[in-house]
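Let us practice reading a record.
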Amino acid sequence: MNDYETSETALWNKFTERDSEAFSRIYDRYVDEMYRYGMKIVSDRELLTDAIHDVFVKLFSAVRLPTDIKSPKAYLFKSLRGQIYDNLKRESRLPSISLDDLPFNVEWRLSDDAACEFENRAVTEEKYKRALSAMTDRQKETVYLHYTLGFSFEETAALMDMNVQSVRNLLSRALAKVRKIMSLAVFLQLFV
Protein backbone atom coordinates (compact mmCIF):
# COMPACT_ATOMS: atom_id res chain seq x y z
CA MET A 1 0.00 0.00 0.00
CA ASN A 2 2.55 2.57 -1.17
CA ASP A 3 0.16 4.79 -3.10
CA TYR A 4 -1.35 7.42 -0.81
CA GLU A 5 -4.15 7.91 -3.29
CA THR A 6 -5.55 4.49 -2.48
CA SER A 7 -9.29 4.69 -2.94
CA GLU A 8 -11.40 5.29 0.10
CA THR A 9 -13.18 1.94 -0.14
CA ALA A 10 -9.98 0.00 -0.86
CA LEU A 11 -8.42 1.55 2.22
CA TRP A 12 -11.48 0.67 4.29
CA ASN A 13 -11.38 -2.92 3.02
CA LYS A 14 -7.72 -3.20 4.08
CA PHE A 15 -8.68 -1.80 7.46
CA THR A 16 -11.44 -4.39 7.91
CA GLU A 17 -8.68 -6.97 7.42
CA ARG A 18 -6.88 -5.38 10.40
CA ASP A 19 -4.21 -3.59 8.38
CA SER A 20 -2.73 -1.08 10.85
CA GLU A 21 -1.26 1.08 8.07
CA ALA A 22 -4.73 1.40 6.56
CA PHE A 23 -6.08 2.43 9.97
CA SER A 24 -3.38 5.12 10.26
CA ARG A 25 -4.13 6.41 6.78
CA ILE A 26 -7.86 6.54 7.45
CA TYR A 27 -7.17 8.45 10.65
CA ASP A 28 -4.75 10.85 8.95
CA ARG A 29 -7.06 11.37 5.98
CA TYR A 30 -10.17 12.28 7.98
CA VAL A 31 -9.29 13.48 11.48
CA ASP A 32 -8.94 17.18 10.59
CA GLU A 33 -12.21 17.29 8.62
CA MET A 34 -13.95 15.40 11.42
CA TYR A 35 -12.65 17.98 13.89
CA ARG A 36 -13.93 20.92 11.79
CA TYR A 37 -17.31 19.23 11.40
CA GLY A 38 -17.50 18.41 15.10
CA MET A 39 -16.72 22.02 16.08
CA LYS A 40 -19.90 23.05 14.28
CA ILE A 41 -21.90 20.78 16.59
CA VAL A 42 -20.09 21.35 19.88
CA SER A 43 -17.64 24.10 20.81
CA ASP A 44 -16.00 22.15 23.64
CA ARG A 45 -12.64 21.14 22.15
CA GLU A 46 -11.94 18.55 24.84
CA LEU A 47 -15.30 16.85 24.42
CA LEU A 48 -14.83 16.84 20.64
CA THR A 49 -11.30 15.44 20.84
CA ASP A 50 -12.59 12.72 23.17
CA ALA A 51 -15.44 11.92 20.76
CA ILE A 52 -13.07 11.58 17.79
CA HIS A 53 -10.78 9.42 19.91
CA ASP A 54 -13.74 7.28 20.98
CA VAL A 55 -14.82 6.76 17.36
CA PHE A 56 -11.38 5.49 16.34
CA VAL A 57 -10.88 3.39 19.49
CA LYS A 58 -14.25 1.72 18.94
CA LEU A 59 -13.36 1.03 15.31
CA PHE A 60 -9.94 -0.32 16.16
CA SER A 61 -11.22 -2.54 18.95
CA ALA A 62 -14.36 -3.76 17.19
CA VAL A 63 -14.57 -7.53 16.84
CA ARG A 64 -16.22 -7.19 13.44
CA LEU A 65 -16.07 -4.14 11.25
CA PRO A 66 -18.78 -3.39 8.73
CA THR A 67 -17.54 -4.42 5.29
CA ASP A 68 -20.44 -3.10 3.23
CA ILE A 69 -19.60 0.57 3.78
CA LYS A 70 -19.99 2.54 0.54
CA SER A 71 -18.52 5.75 1.93
CA PRO A 72 -16.10 5.36 4.84
CA LYS A 73 -15.97 9.15 5.20
CA ALA A 74 -19.75 9.37 5.66
CA TYR A 75 -19.61 6.41 8.06
CA LEU A 76 -16.95 8.16 10.18
CA PHE A 77 -18.86 11.44 10.24
CA LYS A 78 -22.07 9.71 11.23
CA SER A 79 -20.18 7.84 13.97
CA LEU A 80 -18.72 11.12 15.19
CA ARG A 81 -22.12 12.81 15.24
CA GLY A 82 -23.53 9.97 17.33
CA GLN A 83 -20.49 9.89 19.63
CA ILE A 84 -20.73 13.63 20.32
CA TYR A 85 -24.39 13.14 21.19
CA ASP A 86 -23.57 10.18 23.47
CA ASN A 87 -20.77 12.09 25.22
CA LEU A 88 -23.01 15.12 25.79
CA LYS A 89 -25.77 12.86 27.16
CA ARG A 90 -23.31 11.00 29.39
CA GLU A 91 -22.09 14.28 30.86
CA SER A 92 -25.71 15.44 31.28
CA ARG A 93 -24.93 18.54 29.25
CA LEU A 94 -27.84 18.07 26.89
CA PRO A 95 -31.41 18.79 27.71
CA SER A 96 -33.67 16.04 26.51
CA ILE A 97 -33.24 16.53 22.77
CA SER A 98 -32.85 14.02 20.02
CA LEU A 99 -29.80 13.48 17.84
CA ASP A 100 -31.66 15.28 15.04
CA ASP A 101 -31.91 18.43 17.16
CA LEU A 102 -28.19 18.91 17.82
CA PRO A 103 -27.15 22.53 17.23
CA PHE A 104 -25.09 23.35 14.15
CA ASN A 105 -23.06 26.56 14.19
CA VAL A 106 -21.57 28.13 11.11
CA GLU A 107 -19.01 30.92 11.14
CA TRP A 108 -18.74 34.14 9.18
CA ARG A 109 -15.58 34.14 7.10
CA LEU A 110 -14.48 36.93 4.85
CA SER A 111 -10.79 37.75 4.69
CA ASP A 112 -9.66 41.27 3.88
CA ASP A 113 -8.43 40.01 0.49
CA ALA A 114 -11.81 38.51 -0.31
CA ALA A 115 -13.58 41.65 0.88
CA CYS A 116 -12.34 43.40 -2.26
CA GLU A 117 -14.39 40.96 -4.34
CA PHE A 118 -17.63 42.05 -2.71
CA GLU A 119 -19.13 45.49 -3.12
CA ASN A 120 -19.51 46.23 0.56
CA ARG A 121 -18.20 44.03 3.33
CA ALA A 122 -20.70 45.26 5.92
CA VAL A 123 -23.67 44.72 3.61
CA THR A 124 -22.43 41.26 2.59
CA GLU A 125 -21.89 40.28 6.23
CA GLU A 126 -25.34 41.49 7.22
CA LYS A 127 -27.01 39.58 4.37
CA TYR A 128 -25.01 36.45 5.23
CA LYS A 129 -26.06 36.59 8.87
CA ARG A 130 -29.70 37.12 7.87
CA ALA A 131 -29.51 34.14 5.53
CA LEU A 132 -28.03 31.99 8.30
CA SER A 133 -30.66 33.03 10.81
CA ALA A 134 -33.39 32.15 8.30
CA MET A 135 -32.16 28.55 8.15
CA THR A 136 -32.73 25.81 10.71
CA ASP A 137 -29.75 23.95 12.20
CA ARG A 138 -30.66 20.88 10.10
CA GLN A 139 -30.68 22.99 6.95
CA LYS A 140 -27.28 24.47 7.82
CA GLU A 141 -25.85 21.02 8.47
CA THR A 142 -27.25 19.66 5.22
CA VAL A 143 -25.80 22.57 3.22
CA TYR A 144 -22.44 22.09 4.97
CA LEU A 145 -22.33 18.35 4.33
CA HIS A 146 -23.41 18.59 0.70
CA TYR A 147 -21.72 21.77 -0.50
CA THR A 148 -18.73 22.28 1.80
CA LEU A 149 -17.71 18.65 2.39
CA GLY A 150 -18.97 17.34 -0.94
CA PHE A 151 -21.14 14.50 0.34
CA SER A 152 -23.62 13.14 -2.18
CA PHE A 153 -27.35 13.31 -1.47
CA GLU A 154 -27.23 9.61 -0.55
CA GLU A 155 -24.29 10.07 1.85
CA THR A 156 -25.87 13.13 3.44
CA ALA A 157 -29.13 11.22 3.88
CA ALA A 158 -27.35 8.26 5.51
CA LEU A 159 -25.35 10.52 7.80
CA MET A 160 -28.42 12.42 8.95
CA ASP A 161 -30.74 9.39 9.12
CA MET A 162 -33.05 10.80 6.46
CA ASN A 163 -34.22 9.57 3.11
CA VAL A 164 -32.69 11.09 -0.03
CA GLN A 165 -35.82 12.99 -1.04
CA SER A 166 -36.02 14.61 2.40
CA VAL A 167 -32.42 15.79 2.04
CA ARG A 168 -33.20 17.23 -1.39
CA ASN A 169 -36.28 18.99 0.03
CA LEU A 170 -34.34 20.33 3.01
CA LEU A 171 -31.59 21.68 0.74
CA SER A 172 -34.11 23.18 -1.66
CA ARG A 173 -35.89 25.03 1.14
CA ALA A 174 -32.59 26.24 2.62
CA LEU A 175 -31.31 27.51 -0.71
CA ALA A 176 -34.63 29.23 -1.47
CA LYS A 177 -34.28 31.13 1.81
CA VAL A 178 -30.74 32.16 0.91
CA ARG A 179 -31.69 33.28 -2.63
CA LYS A 180 -34.34 35.63 -1.21
CA ILE A 181 -31.60 37.40 0.75
CA MET A 182 -28.39 37.17 -1.27
CA SER A 183 -26.57 35.51 -4.13
CA LEU A 184 -26.27 31.78 -3.57
CA ALA A 185 -22.75 31.74 -5.04
CA VAL A 186 -21.56 34.38 -2.58
CA PHE A 187 -23.29 32.63 0.32
CA LEU A 188 -21.63 29.28 -0.45
CA GLN A 189 -18.24 30.97 -0.73
CA LEU A 190 -18.63 32.31 2.80
CA PHE A 191 -20.25 29.22 4.33
CA VAL A 192 -17.57 27.45 6.39
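A brief commentary: Confidence is low (pLDDT under 50) at residues 1-5.
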